[in-house]
């Protein structure tokens, strides 16, 4: 039983879903939808049509799950509730503060239409949320830590590029190894923002720009850099393209907890990811949850869900019997 | 809403559940059941009755979940289906090869009685099964590795103690760091038993025993030690009691996988546990799944389940809204 996948939006995520479908034994790509001119978009899978986003509703009965590959700031708050009217949908909405509102909007649309939606899928939110949930459930007396990196933060890179005199820029978030080592050694420190991550910025300046001012503006920028130890390196456009086009990322979720009469017995749960490509991994997660949405829809479990609402068994192409025999 | 917990069997696991109930905001211990003479058993929680196992059926309406703390070899195959006639039940059945049969037996009993059972709960099987399932789902093109230790293997310790001239013995399973490092560095090696774990045995010999023979018998024992690099150390009974009474354990689940057009993009998922007390951690997991069983029973989802069938949300005392706000 193959699930028929649609991709809404063909950026890094859309391209990643296309690759992930190829690796899956039970998925086929039916169409890619775009807000651009479809005739100008070349995709990698031969024979799969590129369709104008506006025509998506006509594909209602030809697609089992639509994976919405837009951005969280402006695309997904509109797109996910909209397409939930026609399709089972998956998105990677990652604005934590607005998650309850997004969930409510998608839930209302999906329940009205009789579709299944899973939102905020990926690795954080996503697999890291799951790691936090399990760790909290088994060690209620404990403390969570999430570290990101080494990897590019899009938001921080954007902030650098908004500075006058900056032609291009990229920001790497780097976890502080000493902090991770302290937790691994059994401590449960209260860590400041500065103690958890450092920030490394590669900046291509415009010709004649005041480098000292740019560096100062970055390092003192509130919310983004002022609370971290930040390093700024100026490089050429050539170096930028050559050395900083990668999309590697990763991170760590740790929970240090205690059990026993007086909390004298210590335990450490650690979950970590080391990813050569953030979008390719994220979309592999999206596709696994597309499988879950497809099955939940078959069970008439309509409305919005997060990864915490989905049992692991729904993510796998194998049967429950095979899973019990080989994975449990 | 507090769930009323019963403990069947008061060994290391039963004692651990008793501690875990104290840490949980939503659980209370109602009774401990034993096959021993109840009047001779002293438990730690004041005011909680110790009851003969034979009287358990009379507690049918006073207990929401019975956590069965017996052994997998002979206790659980009988006890779990038996008590599923009266209670929602949790067990830690860990004989992988017999899991399908055990599942079927418990499923039949629970469905007939209208109860909910979750079997094979703990960390392996249990949290490690979950880690394997998620990792397989998101990286279908990849390879799994599970390492155990450093920690005591009860089966291997028993095997040592059956040797003539051995008064006492304990065996530590130790993961080979070099193997883990290879996987972490991006390799996906085929590892033999010998390349994955070493075995370290502490043996208290009987007076006048032939130490060379004992060491040889251990190191060449098929299935248990012959396929590993095994070290045997002879110690006194005093040293044994002083240094080898701990129950620390842990382990690692790794999945190295690839995405991309030609599998050129590499990813590594790692889940690890470092536990001061194997039974106290295991029972913390049992209690989290007791919460899930209680809720599933409320939804009339009767029959047997494994951890792969349970969504993370069921394990937490918080509401789905709180989870979306703080954990996703």
Percent helix among the residues of chain A?
Answer: 25-40%
Structural class of chain A: alpha/beta
Q: Which strand order does the major sheet of chain A show?
A: 3-2-1-4-5-6-14
Query: What general form of chain A does the structure show?
Result: globular
Oligomer: homodimer
- How many extended strands of chain A? 14
C-alpha termini separation of chain A: 24 Å
Strand content of chain A: 25-35%
Overview of this protein structure:
2 copies of one chain form a homodimer. Chain A contains 11 helices and 14 strands. In chain A, strands 3-2-1-4-5-6-14 form a 7-stranded parallel sheet. The first copy, chain A, has a 4-stranded mixed sheet with strand order 8-9-10-11. Chain A is globular and about 60 Å long. Helices cover 34% and strands 26% of the residues of chain A. In chain A, α1 (12-23) crosses α10 (278-298) and α2 (76-83) runs parallel beside α3. The two termini of chain A are 24 Å apart. Chain A has 328 residues and is α/β, with parallel strands linked by helices. Chain A has helices at residues 12-23, 76-83, 99-113, 127-138, 154-161, 177-184, 193-196, 211-219, 237-243, 278-298, 320-326; strands at residues 3-8, 27-34, 50-52, 65-68, 88-90, 116-118, 142-148, 151-152, 166-175, 197-205, 229-234, 249-259, 265-275, 303-305. In chain A, 51% of the residues are buried. β13 of chain A pairs antiparallel with β13 (265-275) of chain B.
How would you summarize the topology of this molecule?
The structure is a homodimer of 328-residue chains.
Chain A: E1 3-8, H1 12-23, E2 27-34, E3 50-52, E4 65-68, H2 76-83, E5 88-90, H3 99-113, E6 116-118, H4 127-138, E7 142-148, E8 151-152, H5 154-161, E9 166-175, H6 177-184, H7 193-196, E10 197-205, H8 211-219, E11 229-234, H9 237-243, E12 249-259, E13 265-275, H10 278-298, E14 303-305, H11 320-326
Helix pairs in contact in A: 1-10, 2-3
